[in-house]
Amino acid sequence: FNVSRVETTPFGDQKPGTSGLRKKVKVFKQPNYLQNFVQSTFNALTPQNVRGATLVVSGDGRYFSKDAIQIITKMAAGNGLRRVWVGQNGLLSTPAVSAVIRERVGVDGSKATGAFILTASHNPGGPNEDFGIKYNMENGGPAPEGITDKIYENTKTIKEYLIADLPDVDITAIGVTSYCGSEGQFDVEVFDSASDYVKLMKSIFDFESIRKLLSSPKFTFCYDALHGVGGAYANRIFVEELGAQESSLLNCVPKEDFGGGHPDPNLTYAKELVARMGLGKSNSEVEPPEFGAASDGDADRNMILGKRFFVTPSDSVAIIAANAVEAIPYFSAGLKGVARSMPTSAALDVVAKNLNLKFFEVPTGWKFFGNLMDAGLCSVCGEESFGTGSDHIREKDGIWAVLAWLSILAYKNRENLGGGKLVTVEDIVHNHWATYGRHYYTRYDYENVDAGAAKELMACLVKLQSSLTEVNEIVSGIHSDVSKVVHADEFEYKDPVDGSISKHQGIRYLFEDGSRLVFRLSGTGSEGATIRLYIEQYEKDPSKTGRDSQDALAPLVAVALGLSKMQEFTGRSAPTVIT
Ligand code: VG1
Ligand code: CO
């Protein structure tokens, strides 16, 4: 093949967000748009990670992925990479990509040094929806800010990109295709999307005990992939390996447009699962399963449900951390430490304190956990946004979270499956609250609001922080039951491993009784701005942990809306989504 240098001019809008570059498909389809970003990324890497290197390219299979894979493959050849690895049909979940970078050995003994993951995660897909791309490093984790900043700088000055005149590669069939260039050979290896990931899961969990749980007539299970890439793993893991019935899998055929839905596993968007679990409005006659779970487009997020019961993601990570050593073989030697993102509730903090574990609070986005894990400081971590994971890879992992919960259920029921009453998801959560107290928690999202108005709202909240007296006057004027604000700031993080500092990571109002209000602007949207408001209140008294969370939080919500003048700035009387 031959390589050509193609002249190009910069686009001004290629700054990677919380998790890569996400835009409408029509933006990505502009001539040279994807090419500029890919070349800017190659130019930001060390030469050893480009020339002669092995690159993974795959994603959640959303619309435009197939075109993108062809373009990136040809550019990889043009930039002197030695080989590209592609999951069959271009499918690899985000956690599977991380596993492939870390664990997979190619047919010729090669190892990968990085990946382009093609996904916009939980954002809808299709010709009029979102596409996304992000680069993951040699450790399997998202590129740190130092690299994403460099990529962005490169996109602002790019003049040319390199591309080889290869024919389109067939990504439907497993196997290696070799091409000969003037500087040597270039291979494309298409491999099974699930094998490496399944192998890793089997090395972490006790599949035999989960199998026993799933085959017990007392236990019923269901999993919804929301038409995302989780479906490429569900049958292999839950049905073939663990013996679940095929009818327990919902929406497990990956689709380019996620069936027209929003592949976001929460109570609003995972409607079918929510109804099946007895949480929806339609009260069907059928008894709901004991356990239900969903994952997002790229299968790194998870939602865990019990029968007519929702587990908040903040509680989920705390409960996994509290039970991991007993229930999950991978952790049997103990946890190295735990971590959560700043807006995630402090349920994990209480577990860390009680179990005397190292604890870290990082900014939103998985890239901040990677350094801690590489340094051996953290085993289990999570975010309030339905992200949970561990140091088995460097991404959050939806199916891992489901297996972690199944492991805990299997462990708690190890003597009950023959006779005795099943310990349910709800029992596990209630017992956890009885031991550690409960963190009432909710998140309000105002999607697609005017970007200028959102900025102003945030600026006013920052300005207000200079006078706590004024803040407390406003607070007590709105609701007399709410305690005093004792501290307010913008969250700033100094990475304990490399010393790098990340500023402006969210506005915090901290109350005397441990309650918190957090305001942030989303970094994953593709249109307008999304304001996120996180509301949390701690209740230690076991007689008061059983309330409805929206009721319990109503006074704090009123304070948050009043302090921020939400309606005044955004014109919205209600959030788009409540989780
Ligand atoms: C959101 C979540 C954040 C998560 C990120 C990526 O970011 O709040 O916790 O890490 O999405 O998740 P933001 O900036 O929009 O609040 V996913 O499933 O896109 O990889
Ligand atoms: Co995701």
TrEMBL record:
Its EC number is 5.4.2.2. GO terms for molecular function: magnesium ion binding; phosphoglucomutase activity. Residues 14-161, 196-305, 314-414 form the Alpha-D-phosphohexomutase alpha/beta/alpha domain. It catalyses: O-phospho-L-seryl-[protein] + alpha-D-glucose 1-phosphate = alpha-D-glucose 1,6-bisphosphate + L-seryl-[protein]; alpha-D-glucose 1-phosphate = alpha-D-glucose 6-phosphate; alpha-D-glucose 1,6-bisphosphate + L-seryl-[protein] = O-phospho-L-seryl-[protein] + alpha-D-glucose 6-phosphate. Its cofactor is Mg(2+). SUPFAM superfamilies: Phosphoglucomutase, C-terminal domain, Phosphoglucomutase, first 3 domains. Keywords: Carbohydrate metabolism, Glucose metabolism, Isomerase, Magnesium, Metal-binding, Phosphoprotein. GO terms for cellular component: cytosol. Signal peptide: none annotated. GO terms for biological process: glucose metabolic process. Monomer. PANTHER family: PHOSPHOGLUCOMUTASE, PHOSPHOHEXOMUTASE FAMILY MEMBER. This is phosphoglucomutase (alpha-D-glucose-1,6-bisphosphate-dependent).
